[in-house]
Automatic annotation (TrEMBL):
This is DNA topoisomerase 1. Keywords: DNA-binding, Isomerase, Magnesium, Metal-binding, Topoisomerase, Zinc, Zinc-finger. Belongs to the type IA topoisomerase family. It comes from Jeongeupia naejangsanensis. NCBIfam families: topA_bact (TIGR01051).
Amino acid sequence: MPANLLIVESPSKAKTLQKYLGKDFQILASYGHVRGLVRKDGSVDTEHDFKMKYQVIDKNKKHVDAICAAVKEADNVYLASDPDREGEAISWHIMEILKGKKLLDPAKTFKRVVFHEITESAVKAAIEHPRDIDSNLVNAQQARSALDYLVGFNLSPLLWRKVRSGLSAGRVQSPALRLICEREIEIRAFTAQEYWSIHLDSHKGRTKFGARLSQWQGKKLDQFDIPDEATQADILKSLDGAEARVAKVEKKKKSRSPAAPFTTSTLQQEGVRKLGMTTDRVMRTAQQLYEGINLGGETVGLITYMRTDAVALSNEALEDIRGYIGDNFDKDYLPKDAIVYKNKSKNAQEAHEAVRPTSIARTPDSVKAFLSADQFKLYQMIWKRTLACQMTPAKFDTVGVDIEVGAQAVFRASGQTLVFPGFIAVYQEDQDDVEDDEDEARLPALEEDEALPVDKVFGEQHFTQPPPRYSEASLVKALEEFGIGRPSTYASIIKTLKDREYVDLDKKRFIPTDTGEVVNKFLTDHFTQYVDYNFTAKLEDQLDEISNGSREWVPVLDDFWKRFHSTVEEKQSLSRKEVTQEELEEDCPKCGNKLAIRLGKRGRFIGCTTYPECDYTRNLGDDADAAPVEPEVVPDRTCPKCDSPLHIKMGRYGKFIGCSAYPKCKHIEPLEPPKDTGVECPSCHKGTLKEKKSRYGKLFYSCSTYPDCTYATWDPPIAEACPQCQWPVLTIKTTKRRGVEKKCPQKECGWSEVIEPPAPKE
C-alpha cells in the first residue's frame, strides 16, 4: 500500500490527481459531505453552547469505511477537500470520524492541503506546503449550519400548521422570496403614465438620421413635459413649415474598460444571460471543468475553483495572459501594465483567485472535441472574459448635434462610432433590462449653421413601464447587492424556491405563486426581522468575522436564538385562518356573512368566511356583481359513491368531473376516460394498461386496478413477451439517436430491437 493517502471530495477529481501524484499516493473520495446534523429536533443543543449531533450520511458510509481502512495503512494523510469553508468543515468531519474510531495515531501525519486549480504544479505545491485544519473556518461553517437548522426546524413546522404541510422556510431562502414578492407588489401597484416625444427625420446625401426634441421655447424638456396628444399636436402645428439648421456640433472621445474576471456571482449571471442556462446548470458545468476533463489521455482541470468572491489574478496568470495577447494581437491591444481589479464584495471569503482558465494557452477550440456542448460554451465564455480583462479599453468617437427648427425648438441627435475595439474584439459583458442604446446611431458629417431638410416631424406616444420581474441573473445580482447568502448558495436558493412551488417562471421571469405570496406575507408580518435584508446581510458579516477569527461563534448563535425562539413561541397561538385568509369589505351574496381571500389547493380564491356552512366561492379576478355561473351537470349520471349529481369542474390541471356534494363526498374522475390499450397488466394479470397523463402532461401507462396494483410504464406497451426474459409485455421506445425500438421494460434484462432506424441527419 502507498505510504501517502490523499482524500478529496469528488471521484472525478481523484482520477485527475492520481495521474499527477503517481503510485506513491492512494487517492480516495469522500463523495461530498461525510457527516450531517441528525435530521430531528434537538440536534443543535441550544442549552449547552449549541453542541451539535452529527451522524454519518447513509449513502456515504461505504466511502467513509474505505477511508478509515486506508488510514490504518497510511503513514501520511492529506485532507484535500474543496478550498472553502464547506471544504474545511468536511476535512474536520473526517478527522472527527477518525478520532471516534481511534485512528488518529500520533505516529502518523494528518495535514490539510489546499489548491485552487487542479494542475500538476498547483497540486504538488500544495502537498509540499500542508497546514493544520483552520478552526475558524470550521466554526464559521458550523455556525452557518446551526443557523440554517434552527430556522428550518422551527419555522417550517409552524408553516405546516398555519398554512399547509410540506412547506419550508429558510434563513436565506425567505429573504430571496421576499424580493420576488415585493417586486410583484410594485408591478401590481404601478399606474402607467402617458407621455409623448417629438421626433425629426432628416438626411444628408444618402444618410438618413433622426433627432429628438430636447428644448421647447427655451426650456429643456423633461420626461413628462409633453403629457398628452393635444400638447404634442400643438407643438407639431407650431413647427409646420419651419426650417432646420445645425446650431451646434460637439465631438468627444469616449473609452470603455473591460469587465473584471468572473466571480461566482458574475459567472452565474452571465451564464444565464449569454448562454440561457440556469444558475444550477452553470455551477454543475463549472464543477466538471474544475475537477478535470480527459483531453485525449491527459486529464486536466480546465478552470480554477468556481466558488470565489475575488477578482484578483495571480502574477503567473497575468504573465501568461499578457504573453498570449502579445503573441496573438497587435501591440495596441496590450496595456503597458497589467490591469489590477479590486474586490467590491465586502463579504469576500478566503483569498481565492477569480474564476479563470488554468492555462490561457488552452484555447476553447483546442479542447472543443473533448467537451460537451455546455462545457464548451461555459469554458469559452470564461476563457474570453479572462483574456479580455487584460486588454486595452475600447475607443469611440461620439458626436452630439443640436438642430434648431424654427425659433422655438431644438432637436438633439447623437451617435457614436467604434474607432478601436480593444477588449470588445474578444468579449463584451451583457446586462439585464437595458433598452436599446440610441447613441450607437451613425451620423453624417455635419457643420454648424448648415441647413438641413425636414423630411418629417412627428410625435410618438409612450407609457411608463413597471419595474421588470426578476430573471435568474437579476435575482442573483440583487441577492449579492443585498448581501443575502453567499454566491455559492444562490443556485440552491433558486432551486428551492422552484421546487417548493413558491415561484413560477414566465418568459424566464419569476412570478410568486399564491402559496409563495401567503408564505411571504406570513414571514414578513410575523418574522419581520428575520427576512429583513439588512439583518440577513449583518448575519453574513458576523459569519465572515468568525471565519477570520475576530468573533466567537457561540455568542453569535446565542444572540440570534434567544430572540428568534421567543418570536416562534409567541406565534404558536396564531390560527390558520389569521394566516391564510384576508377578510374583505364585501358580504357573501349567498348568506350575508363576510367574504375573504382564501388559500386552497389550487391557489387563492374568494370564499365565504363561514365555510363549510356556506360554500359560496368565486375566482379571485371575477366580477363581484356578475351572476354566479351555474355548474355544468353531467347528464344521465350520478356519483357512484353518494348518488348526488356530478358536475364538470375546473381544477389546477384542467377540467374534471367531481361530486356536487363536495366536501362531504370527494369523488372525482377525469373528464375523458383513459384510453385502454387492451394490454393485460404484467404484474397483477387482472387489469389492463390504460393511457393516462401525469400532473405535468406527460403520457404514461398504468394498471386499471390502481391503487390495488401500482404497475406503470412511461412507454406504450405491446402484448408481446420478451424473447430474453419472457416478461409478458414489451414497450415501444422512440428516440432521435436510436429511432423506434422494442424494449423490455425490465431494467435488469435490457433487451431491445430496432424496428425503425433513426432519420438521417440533414
